[in-house]
Amino acid sequence: MKNRRNHSSHEEEYFFKIGFKAINDVNEFCGVMNRLEKFVISAEVRSGTFAVDARSLMGIFSLNLNKPVEVWFKTEVTEQTKTMDMDKYFAAKIEKWLASE
User: 3-state SS string over the chain?
Assistant: First the structure.
């Protein structure tokens, strides 16, 4: 799984398709996003042309959640992140909500 886009030599973005089945899923997802401060500069949920902060419960509910949305993580490239498989790191954190391709 290579869901990565290089922004510059100092930043990378990782993205995944996710879906929510219940209201509680969104609440739990926001809790996970609030605990991802170690490597994440920013996290957004995107639906079409709309993007909201992935930590914002109200923001996520403003999107069309009847279909899968994308979550984007922006990270700073450091010596530690260069040695990690960041795709797997993020996928493990959001595994519950990953949408089937």
Answer: CCCEEECCCCEEEEEEEECCCCHHHHHHHHHHHHCCCCCEEEEEEEECCEEEECCCHHHHHCCCCCCCEEEEEEEECCHHHHCCCHHHHHHHHCHHHECCC
